[in-house]
Input
Amino acid sequence: MFILKKILSPLLLPVTLGLLISFIGLFFLLATKQTRAGKILISAGLLLMLLLSYGFVSDRVIKPLEYRYKPYDIQLTNELLKSQNQFPLKFVVVLGAGHVSDPSLPITSQISDESLVRLIEGIIVHRKNKASKLVLSGGIVFDSISEAEMMARVAEELGVGRHDIILEGDSKDTKDEAYFIKRIVKDDPFVLVTSAYHMPRAVAMLRKLGLDPFPAPTRHYVKRRTGDPHDYFPWAKNLNKAEAAFHEYFGMMWAKLRGQI
Output
């Protein structure tokens, strides 16, 4: 089921979906008498990709996910923990987002940009909570080294001691991560670090298991506009935003169908 999900999910993302619709239209146009249907499908596929390549469209698609939770505030967190007699914070959990182990490259090139930003945010929060342990989550999927181990190696290069790191290297997806994180943190409060657009699904899955993390969203796609000329032209980076959003919305739908949130 996991491999099947990984194979089928890209078919629902904007670029693949737009091209698929267009090529089906091309087939109708060239190989059948349904030329009108072919023209409509080709136009629909191209229009989908064109619209989502504009920032004002892709931003509106992903913003409801990214701004569900505010940035981490250590003062508010500590006040709440003290009121519950649970101070100090014990765990800062960072969810992985992919890597490719290649010893010929610098270690920062072996970890995905998204994982790197999550990890840096996690280290910042960990250092603000001096009594905490840094829990790095992510198992072996298509690589011989777990995501957790790769993030740990980068964390060590950034000055985090191995004695302050706990590895969760058995999970393959967010559902697994929630289950294995619960086994580590038990009933203790913790900060959850992941990409802003991914935070709603991750929090929902953890709450389904009875946990209530303090969100620390990072790597926001949607930022205050500064008049960048790219805002007025189609741009591949805007398609990246849309793909991230589509992936999450479909992931949330799948999780609801499976009773995971």
Notes: The chain has two domains: 2-65+231-257, 69-218. Residues 69-218 form a domain with the Rossmann fold fold (CATH 3.40.50.620).
